[in-house]
Amino acid sequence: MLGEKPGRLLPKPRWLKCKICDGVIYRRVRDILDSGGVRTVCWESCCPNTGECFSRGTAAVLILGSRCTRSCRFCGIGGGPTEPPDPDEPARVAEAVRQLGLRYVVITSVTRDDLPDGGAEQFAVTVKELRARVKDIRVEVLIPDFAGSEKALRTVVSVRPDVIAHNLDTVQRLFPRIRPEADYGRSLALLASARTLDPGILTKSGLMLGMGESPAEVEEALRDLISAGCRVVTIGQYIAPSRGHAPVERFVPPDEFTAWRETALEMGFTTVSSGPLVRSSYRAGE
């Protein structure tokens, strides 16, 4: 768990380079988000693509606070005391998106097992506010598993986001070590239920490689996602946020990510984004 004996740090390979971006657009995005008190998963989770995405005028918005009730060993978002959902947050998010001129937005959250609905209502209200304030906005929600609550999932599905995303993050064998408070089958069941509740909503998931998984296990996870009705998948390199997180077991070379993209397409995925720096919300609108 976090805080245990520090893990080793592998030297980063030459191909794992982030774009360092700044400029007028980048600063405008930062200013609008900061002035509206709007958090992004970009900053909170130490995403390597923050500079590039902000410079392109895009961001993945984080709702329901900045403290998570779980302790996944890959994640840079911290735990600690949580606060009640802010009733003004959906309106602030929608206004920031309007000012940014976005036509596609990703809304995600920390996991809030302390809330009866896991924060589902806050997702729903945020989607409604976005649709009310921003013409022709397309909304992707990247949701937690809501502790398996179908009622909570129905709340989100009822407002009909364009995409419902929920990440497996890793293969089944590694769940107990990497995501100890989550459940592999529960995550697959959530994606399958979303498709059943509204077949018109696209479902999406993501995997990170380099945690010690085998090729056979990655194939199994991809096939399980297909069986759950998922047709969009992202595959990226795991990068440890700190020495206290799960160590990187291997840096996967770019040609392997290309091969995984081809494999996933052959399995039946309609859209696959696969590369060392790919994250679940990276260039999501594309």
Topology readout:
Blueprint: H1 24-35, E1 39-40, H2 41-44, H3 50-55, E2 60-63, H4 89-100, E3 104-109, H5 120-133, E4 138-142, H6 150-157, E5 163-165, H7 175-178, H8 184-197, E6 202-209, H9 215-227, E7 232-237, H10 254-267, E8 271-274
Parallel strand pairs: 2-3, 3-4, 4-5, 5-6, 6-7, 7-8
Antiparallel strand pairs: 1-2
Please sum up the structure shown.
The chain has helices at 24-35, 41-44, 50-55, 89-100, 120-133, 150-157, 175-178, 184-197, 215-227, 254-267; strands at residues 39-40, 60-63, 104-109, 138-142, 163-165, 202-209, 232-237, 271-274.
Written account of the structure:
This protein is α/β, with parallel strands linked by helices and 286 residues long. The chain has one domain: Aldolase class I (TIM Barrel). 35% of the residues lie in helices and 13% in strands. The protein contains 10 helices and 8 strands. It has an 8-stranded mixed β-sheet. β7, α10 and β8 form a beta-alpha-beta unit. α4 runs parallel beside α5 and α5 packs parallel to α6. The longest helix is centred in the middle third of the chain and has 14 residues. The N terminus is likely disordered.
